[in-house]
């Protein structure tokens, strides 16, 4: 997320933090220190803690002036404490409250991100989606997935990705009205029940991935039998509450949105690092066959729940048929095959980074070009312009195994794949040559220039539009329809003033086919006809991308509306919206 002034962002709305606390002292100082620089008021609800804890908590405002402690005489449970905090916050005039646990599990650096999303969607609940590290007990994960299933049944939707994480931002007017008009569980059933009931009231749910840890010296107030019984009763009640609402819940899936489509960068990265690591372990222990078996239900889940990606797949495959003159209709199994190929590409990434892909598995097209690069005595490097076609990650892994080639990949920090983090556990070199950036600025250009001058290779993808700017595109024919291609990668390549190649890696007949085509000795743009040159370069790139897409149509993994106009009237960039709000506040 971009940097911004939190104080200015909060001017139009009033946010606070609510922390329920029952006998938690060991991490509470750390939690308060983490939020001290945010200039946010904090309401801590002392939920009937013992005498020594209560005394300790009530002394904390002396050290933290932004903190207010309210005391409940008797323990009412986590849910009861949170609801008491929300009601008090609403009485004091706050419009939104951020629920945070007192035990140090949550990554409080994400609070500005929660608020930024809330500013763009003021009536929505922003839900933290846990990205667990190795500290999470397995006994905590299994019940979560059981609850996920029941929540999907109770809402007839996959919109709620995780209903048990207690790290959320609530719009208080709607939430307090619900609390005061219906009965909601006061203990460990609270987080799930309130979210389902808010969804029933058509409150938008926005999911945001966030790190969650389990401190070694942490404590939990979860009561194995009592709370599991409460959760079971809650799901039973919610299931029967869903039945009369079912027609309305189903009808929501058919309502058309009138607002602009979201930009590709707003697409949530799905899956967790832990889940990917489990798949890597499956591959390492049992090989490809079990991995492929385990992949089927995973892919089925993503096909069923990924509405936007599924529609994009249909659109792309129809465009392929139209371009090739095929009269075949695109069926659901074609879309499943498209998703499944994406899953298989994950297998190939694992194989590449674990050293299981050998030169005998690779067919090098334009072998003389590869040989020339390996034997290049010049200190100058090169730029490879790739795409989301095939397996660019495999090219990077192969380059890492070739001591004569140092390959760097440029990725946007927000969308650097969780896959990368999982692979680091098994091969530390997996991220050594990742250059993570939020925007392409002068610092990035200078860093890349230094790498190219040192004889290294820089890979940039050319088939994604800018995360931060509208209109920095050129439209070029792609599968018979004009599509926006970002100017950024090609302008950056021109600034580096080095040989430029087009790179594609496709899986064909069980082998990896690497295509490295010379594109230009230098893409340096002349001042006189810069725009015409840039249009010609991007059109040539689109033609080659189209050529290779037709070789392996199921291996193009841009699961969004690629032909959407890059205009404020047609597409919504959350990053741009946040920046525009800040600019208005600065005026």
TrEMBL record:
Gene3D superfamilies: Spore Coat Polysaccharide Biosynthesis Protein SpsA, Chain A (3.90.550.10). Residues 16-152 form the Glycosyltransferase 2-like domain. One of its GO terms (biological process) is protein N-linked glycosylation. InterPro entries: Glyco_trans_2-like, LipA_acyltrans, Nucleotide-diphossugar_trans. Keywords: Acyltransferase, Cell inner membrane, Cell membrane, Membrane, Transferase. GO terms for molecular function: acyltransferase activity. GO terms for cellular component: plasma membrane. It is found in: Cell inner membrane. This is Acyltransferase. It comes from Kangiella profundi.
